[in-house]
């Protein structure tokens, strides 16, 4: 199969629509990462997503819809706080989990009675979703466990020959996957941290819980169970307080003839002297936006990537640390 990368225009959207309707897969941009989309109403199409990625079949997917899509055709029991959150944050990097009406195929939610709904804000994603006018089941458009893609080229590196079309919407600006929020209870509960933080949710909904997975429990959201986001090189992760130990490790690796790089934010980079640094940026939003891009760059240039956690650990950094720990820890 030949994989095309095309800019998002009328011709490529018509092609994407025909591929989706015929049961095929299309990679498309969102504001967070690129997604690998299939018709969420077709079990065969959704199974093809799992196969293309090599994704475990008990790891649920998210249904993506455009901003004018009536989600009450897919889900039920929408609490009042969810409507307030939708008004505040959608379209945007927030996924909300509701009770499913069973309209989408069971493969999307791995047999659970819930459905995760996402309304991305990326203009290209909205154009694609409006063109197909179907719920699109989509995980990140990469090989399972590899670093999530934030450019069309990243998708091509992982899925060339496995899918027919990548819609190129440029580099994603958000950088880490959406926050996933369980909206099936009296109080919203964060299942996966992201750019919409727990405090931001609580400010709108009044309160917000955070879920901690119990060993042996079924996965309720993407990103909860399995190793993720890993570059194809050796990695090491140091805390902020151990940053100078990380620098010593870097020097040891260089002395051994290894191509070593340090990945850190700008504040830590200032303490690293003349070490080779992949700089994540100056604030939490830049760090989130650059994380996957720098992990992908690291695997190209390094034998070992030595990551140093930022000093700030709250807010958006909760989601960043979740990904960084799974990638390098």
Describe the secondary-structure layout.
Layout lengths: L3 E4 L2 H12 L4 E3 L6 E5 L3 H11 L8 E3 L10 E2 L3 H10 L4 E7 L5 H4 L4 E5 L4 H10 L3 E2 L14 H8 L5 E4 L10 E4 L6 E4 L5 H8 L3 E2 L23 E5 L4 H13 L4 E5 L1 H4 L7 E3 L4 H18 L2 E5 L7 H13 L1
Parallel strand pairs: 1-9, 2-9, 4-7, 6-10, 11-12, 13-16, 14-15, 14-16
Antiparallel strand pairs: 2-3, 3-8, 4-8, 5-6, 6-7, 10-11
Pfam families: Sua5_C (PF03481), Sua5_yciO_yrdC (PF01300)
Protein name: Threonylcarbamoyl-AMP synthase
Family: Belongs to the SUA5 family.
Provide an overview of this structure.
The protein is α/β, with parallel strands linked by helices and 329 residues long. It contains eleven helices and 16 strands. Strands 1, 2, 3, 4, 5, 6, 7, 8, 9, 10, 11 and 12 form a twelve-stranded mixed beta sheet that branches. Helix 1 crosses helix 5 and helix 10 packs parallel to helix 11. The two termini are 36 Å apart. The model has no long low-confidence stretch (mean pLDDT 95). This is Threonylcarbamoyl-AMP synthase. Required for the formation of a threonylcarbamoyl group on adenosine at position 37 (t(6)A37) in tRNAs that read codons beginning with adenine. InterPro entries: DHBP_synth_RibB-like_a/b_dom (IPR017945), Sua5-like_dom (IPR006070), Sua5/YwlC_C (IPR038385), Sua5_C (IPR005145), T(6)A37_SUA5 (IPR010923), TC-AMP_synthase_SUA5 (IPR050156). It comes from Candidatus Coproplasma avicola. One of its GO terms (molecular function) is double-stranded RNA binding.
């Amino acid at each position: 199969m030949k994989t095309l990368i095309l800019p998002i225009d009328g011709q490529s959207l018509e092609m994407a629509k025909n591929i989706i309707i015929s049961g095929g897969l299309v990679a498309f941009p969102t504001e967070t990462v690129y997604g690998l989309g299939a018709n969420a109403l077709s079990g065969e199409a959704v199974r093809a997503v799992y196969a293309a990625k090599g994704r475990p079949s008990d790891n649920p997917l998210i249904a993506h819809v455009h901003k004018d899509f009536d989600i009450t055709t897919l889900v039920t029991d929408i609490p009042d706080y969810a409507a307030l959150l939708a008004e505040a944050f959608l379209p945007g990097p927030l996924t909300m989990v509701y009770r499913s009406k069973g309209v989408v195929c069971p493969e999307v939610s791995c047999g659970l009675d819930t459905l995760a709904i996402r309304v991305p804000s990326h203009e290209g994603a909205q154009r694609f979703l409006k063109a197909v006018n179907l719920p699109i089941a989509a995980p990140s458009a990469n090989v399972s466990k590899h670093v999530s893609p934030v450019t069309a080229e990243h998708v091509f590196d992982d899925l060339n020959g496995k899918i027919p079309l990548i819609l190129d919407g440029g580099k994603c600006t958000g950088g880490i996957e959406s926050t996933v929020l369980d909206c099936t209870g009296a109080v919203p509960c964060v299942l996966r941290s992201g750019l919409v933080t727990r405090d931001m949710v609580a400010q709108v909904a009044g309160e917000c819980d955070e879920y901690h997975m119990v060993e042996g429990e079924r996965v309720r959201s993407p990103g909860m169970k399995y190793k993720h986001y890993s570059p194809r090189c050796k990695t090491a992760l140091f805390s902020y307080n151990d940053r100078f130990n990380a620098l010593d490790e870097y020097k040891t690796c260089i002395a051994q003839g290894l191509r070593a790089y340090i990945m850190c934010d700008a504040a830590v980079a200032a303490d690293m002297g003349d070490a080779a640094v992949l700089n994540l940026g100056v604030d939490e939003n830049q760090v989130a936006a650059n994380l996957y891009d720098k992990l992908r760059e690291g695997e190209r240039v390094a034998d070992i990537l030595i990551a140093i956690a930022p000093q700030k650990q709250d807010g958006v950094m909760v989601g960043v640390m979740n990904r960084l720990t799974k990638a390098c820890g």
